Amino acid sequence: MLGSDSQHSLDTRRPRRLSRRPRPRGLIAFLGALCAALLATTLLSATASAGTRQAPAEQRKAPAAAAKTTAAGGKTVGYFTNWGVYQRNYHVKNIETSGSADKLTHINYAFGNVQGGKCTVGDSYADYEKTYTAAQSVDGKADTWDQPLRGNFNQLLKLKQKHPDLKVLWSFGGWTWSGGFGEAARNPAAFAESCYNLLNDPRWKGLFDGIDIDWEYPNACGLSCDTSGRNAFANLMKALRAKFGSKLVTAAITADASPGGKLETTDYKTAAQYVDWYLPMTYDYFGAWNAQGPTAPHSPLSSYQGIPKEGFNTQATIAKLKAMGVPSSKLLYGLGFYGRGWSGVTQSAPGGTATGPAPGTYEQGIEDYKVLKTRCPATGKVGGTAYAHCGNQWWSYDTPETIGAKGDWAAQQGLAGAFFWELSGDTANGELIKAIR
Fold it and tell me: Which pLDDT band holds residue 34 (cuts at 50, 70, 90)?
């Protein structure tokens, strides 16, 4: 969804308020002394409770002792990056200690590679070889030298043991590794077979509940340009569905709703019948790849006067997908747990000129929310998201307040939930994920 450090981007050059309550439980009482009328009332209540409808198991988390607030439609999907265990020092255990595991319904593990028309491992060391100490481990137990599985995969299995209804999908592609999809599309059945075999490798049996495809972008240009044709994406998703059966099959897709933009280059309507849901990447609409500006929020919910490009906002993206025939129940909306920024900016309001990207910890022009919230606090809002002007820097990012408002809008649209890129950008106590509703 982002480039370089994060690998995954919309980058145009080149994620309702509903408090879900535990299912009502019928009162089982064996109080023989109760009168017949009271017993009848109790039975009626139990009958009504048993009829309460619930989302399928893969769309919800098991009720805990207290009710949990979840995203619109019930899904909260977060990306976990395998390279985050290096410089970022973000590990599976952090998902637990931050409280994020209690909010998540699904984790997308990013990324696997696509090579030679097949799904392949992206980073074997991080994925299943890295040794964890007791202090670093989800369950407080250290890895041993001779155990068959270590790394993130083993830690994710431990996390699933703590949260039995949490689902994990393996994401393939991303900004950097999407170039292999063109070859995969030439033989979709063989590609699907390779992916199925990799996800079901006996070494990590039981870890993956499905696959997420992050093709950036079918029949359009990302880091490279794809010419596989308008039907290639649908054919690929059809083959994956045929192979994976009832397992989850999802896809992160472009959010470019501009006239003649990337959403028009591919048959997303036909492909929608094969996916459980789409993740339109409603962030990275604007950024410092346009080094001189104009400054603009990278994840606006709505258009606003002076927005640099038509169709570059979440409302426009969702509206276009619906108009194309993709049902609301198969659409999540995306959030970025980071900001994008410029340097050399004198104007506080959006639309100012700049001299280049603002400095970032891992890459120029981008910084985690957990850093920006104190380094450059928000000074205003536009288009349903926040921006900040500090010194000569101008940043845009979502805050707990704007994330809550986006969730209210998503509920009105009947969307299936929210997803975000990515877990390590949040605060240590999960400030942003806890604002999703």
Answer: very low
Instruction: Exactly one of 96, 216, 422, 431 is catalytic; name it.
Output: 216
How far is the C-alpha of 425 from the C-alpha of 378, rounded, in Å?
16
Helix axes 400-413 and 314-323, enclosed angle (nearest 10): 20
CATH number at residue 327: 3.20.20.80
Task: Over range 225-249, report the average pLDDT.
Answer: 98
CB 60 within 8 A of CB 403: no
Q: Are 303 and 348 in contact (CB under 8 A)?
A: no
Supply the pTM of this predicted model.
Answer: 0.85
* Dist CA 256 CA 96 (whole Å): 34
Contact 141, 134 (CB under 8 A): yes
Q: Rg of the Cα trace of the chain?
A: 22
| Domain boundaries, position 317 | 69-336+404-435
216 catalytic residue (yes or no): yes
Q: How confident is the model at residue 73 (pLDDT cuts 50, 70, 90)?
A: confident
* Candidate from 14-23, 182-191, 253-262, 363-372 with smallest mean pLDDT: 14-23
For CA atoms 410, 412, 416, 417, give the dihedral sign.
Answer: positive
- pLDDT of 22 strictly over 90: no
Any domain includes 46: no
User: Which tokens belong to 417?
Assistant: 């939930």
Residue 367 forms part of a structural domain: no
| Residues 33, 35, 39, 44, Cα dihedral to 10° | -160
Nearest to 426 by CA among 117, 76, 49: 76
Helix (H, G, I), strand (E, B) or coil at 183: helix
